[in-house]
Design brief:
The protein is mainly alpha-helical. The chain has one domain. It has five helices and three strands; from the N terminus they run ααββααβα. A hairpin with a 3-residue loop joins strand 1 and strand 2. Helix 1 packs parallel to helix 4 and helix 4 packs antiparallel against helix 5.
């Protein structure tokens, strides 16, 4: 079973690949960029093209290239800090969460450089409530990764028995 830096690295790579593949399939191959909407399971799941030029939920959205590249650079910088943090922690849950967060952040940073905005397309609704927001695989990974980092044992607590001691 993987642990430590390998777990973080391979999780980040898997998330980045899943995000890139899903965005290529939906935005490019299925033509969501032109079609703008595809109902998958009407009333529950649809694909809705949304370009997020800001941060969460489009906050601080702006078309300025400085913001575009600044947010991409910030995502890369945060990913580097989280990677270093994961190297020091070495718990399996922490490494997995760090990999999820890094892969998702790099996936969205890629979008900012390639498209000028993050490509969001998953829209989930229920019970007659119209959800105006869309998200993507990277967003899910960032949220799940942050949650795993919160749940990981604090340094010095009873930790993962498979964690390697630091030397």
């Amino acid at each position: 079973m993987m642990r430590g830096p390998a777990l973080t690295l391979w999780t980040a790579v898997a998330v980045l690949l899943a995000d890139r593949l899903s965005k290529w399939a939906v935005v490019e191959a299925m033509g969501l960029r032109e079609r703008l909407a595809i109902d998958v399971a009407p009333g529950f799941v649809s694909l809705r093209m949304a370009w997020n030029r800001g941060v969460n939920f489009g906050l601080f959205a702006d078309d300025a290239p400085a913001l575009r590249f600044g947010l991409a650079g910030l995502a890369v910088a945060i990913s580097a800090v989280v990677a270093i943090w994961a190297l020091r922690r070495r718990e399996r849950l922490f490494g997995f969460g760090a990999g999820m967060l890094i892969g998702g952040a790099l996936g969205n940073a890629w979008d900012r450089v390639a498209y000028g905005a993050v490509a969001d397309f998953l829209n989930v609704t229920c019970c007659g409530i119209d959800n105006p927001y869309a998200f993507n695989i990277a967003d899910v990974a960032i949220f799940a990764g942050a949650f795993a980092l919160i749940l990981a044992p604090a340094p010095g607590e009873a930790s993962d028995p498979a964690a390697e001691p630091r030397r």
